[in-house]
Amino acid sequence: MKNKIMDQPYCGVRGEFIKNATPTLDPIVLGYMKEFIEDRYAIHIKKDVHELPAPWTTNPIFLDVKFTNVRREHDRQTKEYLDIIGSAQIPWFDKFWNSIMFRMFNISTVWRDCNGGKPFDIKSLSDPAVQAKLREQITTLIAMGKPVFTNAFNTGGLKQSLALPDYDVDTCMDQRRGTLQVTLEDGSKVDYKSNRERLLNGELKAKEFEPFMPMRIIRYLAHAANNLMPNLHQEVKEADHQQDAYLRMMGIRGFSRFLAYQSFVDLTYCEEFEFSENEFTVSGPGCDAGIDKLFLDRAGMSPAECVFWLRDNQHIFGIDFNVLMWDLDGPDRGMNVMSLENCFCELSKYVRCKEAIASGKKPRGKVSTAKLVSSDPQTFVKVPTTKKLF
Prior knowledge:
- By secondary structure, the chain is mainly alpha-helical.
- The protein folds into 2 domains: 15-67 and 283-358, no CATH class; 76-276, no CATH class.
- It has helices spanning 15-20, 27-49, 60-64, 76-86, 92-105, 109-114, 128-143, 156-161, 172-177, 192-200, 213-228, 232-237, 242-249, 257-268, 285-294, 303-312, 321-324, 337-358, and strands at 24-25, 181-183, 189-191, 295-297.
- The protein has a two-stranded antiparallel ribbon with strand order 1-4. A two-stranded antiparallel ribbon has the order 2-3.
- Strand 2 and strand 3 (189-191) form a beta hairpin.
- Helix 2 crosses helix 18 (337-358), helix 5 packs antiparallel against helix 11 (213-228) and helix 7 (128-143) packs antiparallel against helix 11.
- The radius of gyration is 22 Å and the shape is globular.
């Protein structure tokens, strides 16, 4: 995207320091990153632009392991977000909180199957009748085997922090310490930590505790938007600069630096939001890992500054981005800080796959059977976090 009117160049980093930095890169890993960008983008062209049938590559890593697109806006869930929320003609209050809710689920199922593919009326989510209907609808979706949570990244911390969704404060630390008490329906109090499983399986019932993971998000979001932070949407929109907007979003319970940044980027796709993704980035844990692989010596730069440095020196890839990204408008043909952050998140996984092939093993991504859909013991659905590309 083009820069927007309120963009502050080199927001949150030292611009002059970056321009004068002379880091040392691992030439082998640089070659792997070049290969990743070229091969993954070529898949996008064949699959999404020309709509050719699979296979779209001969790269053995991409044949077996799923990776995100080079450009985030090409990923399926980002396209879904744009279609359902980002381009919707709705009040900014609803667009902002639908955006937050969408990234918490990171999948469009709840919108498509429970609300006709439209944004939710956020104020209505506080209505017990609306919540009851959504609970029933989502339970049915899960019974049908439809995922309602992402398998792209770990949402365990987010879900845990919303176990008591109507609370005004985050109780995660008290949960871990064993100092949190929960009031049961009969008025008695029990220790949360030692009774968590009994609360989850329904043996103990507490109105304030939400055992059903999807409803934790819906209940918390309704409480946050309508009671706790009713002006946050406007504060973010009117922030002085990108980092200010991002830091305000960090006040949303369960939002780590990764989720807050990803939601910030979602908002940059909205016409009403006057910041772009081009001049601000946050290096999440995955991005940090990729940077550690590529940079042998960061020359005193922070991870975010390394991203900016590579944006300013992307010629070192030896890629003609005008040719590679011919499907994009001219200003978008290249790597902005968002696309680089996106690629760094995948780089350490790609390097592991390259090393596996070199040692005669099959390339593998992250494999897990985490409970990604619900913590309701009767509706556990095991979903592998790594899927084949096609």
